[in-house]
Write a structure and sequence with these properties.
By secondary structure, the chain is an all-alpha fold. The chain has one domain. Helices cover 80% and strands 0% of the residues. Helix 3 packs antiparallel against helix 4. The longest helix has 25 residues.
Length: 216
Amino acid sequence: MPRRALVEHRPWLLAAVFAAVAYYVLQDSIKVEPIEIAIKGAGVGFLAIYALRRAPGADGMILTIALALSALGDMALELWFEAGGALFAASHLAAIVLYMRNRREQAAFSQGLLGFALIIAVPAFSYVLSGDALIGIYATTLGAMAAAAWTSSFPRYRVGVGALLFVVSDWLIFSRMGPFDLSPVPDLAVWPLYFAGQLMIATGVVQTLRGEVPAK
């Protein structure tokens, strides 16, 4: 990344990380709910601004939309769980469009097999964890997003792994709803896994679109 680009665009990444860490550390001590909600949304919201300023073309705009919808989903979950889920489903659909526009030309058999497995396993396991059919329906978009990310031309160990971290963070959320008591793991791990995944996706896609890292 050129020196000038670092100066101009690194602050948005630093702001995203700072907001995410602040939310994780302070979420239980913030007494004013609108402030807590705003800080929560700021983490991925700053990633959306980073993508808007840094990622070129239509693919960059799709990435921006997906991240912005996720940021709105983060905030909506605090007020109305179903609305937050709908926003995340829309975010996954936008991400699927991005990844399908950038499909890997010659995916290895193992990559395609994992992609197919994600499409089936993510909604099935989400339903098992939550015991909720609506969660299973939502997770069809989650699984399709992860599968599309893994089989896209973006770096698997940035974007693909980021999508898998997203899946695991959602699974931990779903575990709170069903018969499996994994506490205190969800309370400790959901937010770090989720934000790390979004950060890997955002930086991996942006830098690939700009030709700064090769697809692998």
